[in-house]
# Entry
Amino acid sequence: MSARSGLMGPALRMGGLVFALILLVVVGAVTAGERFMSPGNLTTILSLAAVTGVVSIGMTFVITSGGIDLSVGAVLGLASIWASTLSTQYMAEDYGWWVIVVTALAVGLAAGLVNGALIAYGKVPAFIATLAMLAAARGLAEIIAGRRTQIVDVEPFFDVFQARPLGLPTIVWIFVVVAAAGWFLLNRTTFGRRTVAVGGNPEASRLAGIKIKRHTLYLYGLAGLTAGIGAVIMLARTTAGSSTHGTLLELDAIAAVVVGGTLLAGGRGTITGTVLGVLIFSTLTNIFVLNNLDSSVQAIAKGAIIVVAVLLQQWFASREKATST
Amino acid sequence: MVDADPHEAVEPLLRMRGIVKEFPGARALDGVDLEVRPGEVHCLLGQNGAGKSTLIKILAGAHQPTAGEILLDEEPVTIPDPVAALKLGIATIYQELDVVDGLTVAENIYLGHELARGGVSRRSDAARRTREIMQRLGHPEITPHREVGRLPAAGKQIVSLARALSRDARVVVMDEPSAVLDSEEVGNLHRIVRELTADGVAVVYISHRLEEIRQLGDRITVLKDGRTVATSLLVADTPTNDLIKLMTGRAVEYAFPDRPGVPEGAAPVLEVEDLGLGDVFNDVSLTVRAGEIVGLAGLVGSGRSEILETIYGARRSTSGSVRVGGKRLRSGVDAAVAAGVGLCPEERKSQGLLLDEPVYRNITLSTFARIARGGLLDEGAERAAAREQVEALDLRPASVDRNARTLSGGNQQKALLARWLVHGCRVLLLDEPTRGVDVGARAEIYSLIRRLADDGAAVVVVSSEIPEVLGLADRVLVISDGKAVHEGPAREIDEHAVLDLVMEGSVA
Ligand SMILES: Nc1ncnc2c1ncn2[C@@H]1O[C@H](COP(=O)(O)OP(=O)(O)OP(=O)(O)O)[C@@H](O)[C@H]1O
Ligand SMILES: [Mg+2]
# Structure
């Protein structure tokens, strides 16, 4: 963890998240019994977690660096549309399923780099730049798709992405791989160290010779790229591209990241926490669905979890502060 | 001021007895006693990390003591939080600036005790009183509605001073208030301290500048490793050498290292030509050869820090050029760092440190990418490199895994210096390198800077302490109002001459 220095802090926080997840699993098992605990249902939970999960990994980096990306959901929608237009699908028929994947990733990356350039070099606040991208990406997606859902009809694509290597769907494996790569990138590479440094004290980082503008560009590029990966997963799961894919996804991602223990103010980030945060929310959703509960009630429960998690975070922070003013 | 007679029976105003403070993993205070009389300047002395700031934070209600008692007028009191301290008439100026950048001067001064009637703030009252206080502090140019974020470090220090004065306190605690101030400002500060004590206010004063304590202090309490090693010594009766011995447990050569002189054929490493930055400074030229230390002397606000930051590329110059080793420097900090230029900024907290990251990551902040292999961090090697410097600089506590936040002020300064030692620099720009550093460590830092120069680095030093610039540097540039008004060998000029030049320059 990047904040190993806090000694007990991070371990306690992780413990709390694991505890919350176990609690939810118990609640699920008690209220829905077999239907919840069946391997099929657990796979469903993971598959549902995959999209938010992948996007939340990118979001973790952005938030750790002290930024925010509100456009990930819209960029995911745009990427899903662009990768499922008739012409992309024809090309995929001709050259291979990877055309769809590359298109989605390229669209995500490009949108992310535009965000990054605006923020780093245009000095537009991240909140504004990505809000603008949110609106623009949705609009563009609607124009391209003519507000229609685009069914994907490329068999080889589904052969790959709906397969179940080692018993788990490919899309779950993608989440696992992205999370592992994200953990490695944040904790073991210079990229990760720069991210934490820029979030912790941008001025000190700049004066120490870190190229913070370039790094900001990369960070938002990375967030866009994960939105592109999210689009691929979405296409695989729903077999269609839609300009409404990923609506409000940015909020779910931010919630998962913050609940996981990454500081919204930057300077401390945890991939493990984010993964746990994502699992907590998707398990919660699953339990509500299995018990036929109203989705409005679910929204309230979500809100409560976010508030409790943030209160806990502040409590931990103030305890650390009290010992180190 | 209190008559320097120890037998005179003056009731102490404030008494701290047997104060213990434990932090997780560290015992910062281990039974400290302090006794302060009304109307005296009581100096608190001790090496970096001795526990001075911790003690006064307990007094200010920012920390809770693990054990011990505090008596005010011989009545035991508890100070659960800073508001309670202010209610008891204890106002504190912290070592690290604690002003809110986004607020105006007046808002900062009245933060927490806003002048209001029926919930409506009386802004004009606050402004008027702010103006009065600033007048008293000799800084009428700091107007009530200025945004504090736009003030230089010294200006911010004045604002926090003004805040303490606005409280009508009985005890004013000042933790290294003079560290960011130049000699004129320090004179001002001393005048104010004397005014306060004349009114019967007790002042607890922390400083690493021993001459200052001679001039200002009445009695001294010395801390070492969290214990009181001497209480209430009379300043007049205690020679400086004894003080140093009490603080450090040894005799320290309080002297500047020899100046071997720059070898005849030494190549110029740093060449600055007609550098300018808007209306802050202009036409600054200087050449620093390998092995040479050049000092910039001048008042706070004369543009010294800005000159360093512009050379470093942290500010975009509006004219002129900077060459390192004959090659013109692209603008931008990363180009400067790549060319082997390092800057220790003046504001270590906001410009230097990642407070919530371990010491070793702070030390390797500009080298971790170089230590890494193919983008993969090598934290083992980082720790080793950091540990080496921690030992060389006698940074305490010697652990490299603690958060930078838990280091005392002087030790944070050492960590910043260590950053550039690990990096290895051809040009080292030092802005107030000994701010808040104790006498023992100061001597070490001076000889370290000299050693770096001897090894071929070109060093530029900015300091508010003119004797430091004159003692350390080979050559000095006197800066006044953004212009270099004098350049010459450091041996051939003394403090008075520098001050005269500065005054002339700012009049002209
Ligand atoms: N929050 C904390 N957690 C752990 N240790 C701490 C914390 N704050 C201070 N310390 C330790 O307590 C000791 C005393 O620190 P303090 O800041 O009081 O020193 P100081 O005398 O003010 O030094 P300086 O002259 O450098 O300002 C140091 O060893 C410091 O590392
Ligand atoms: Mg201190």
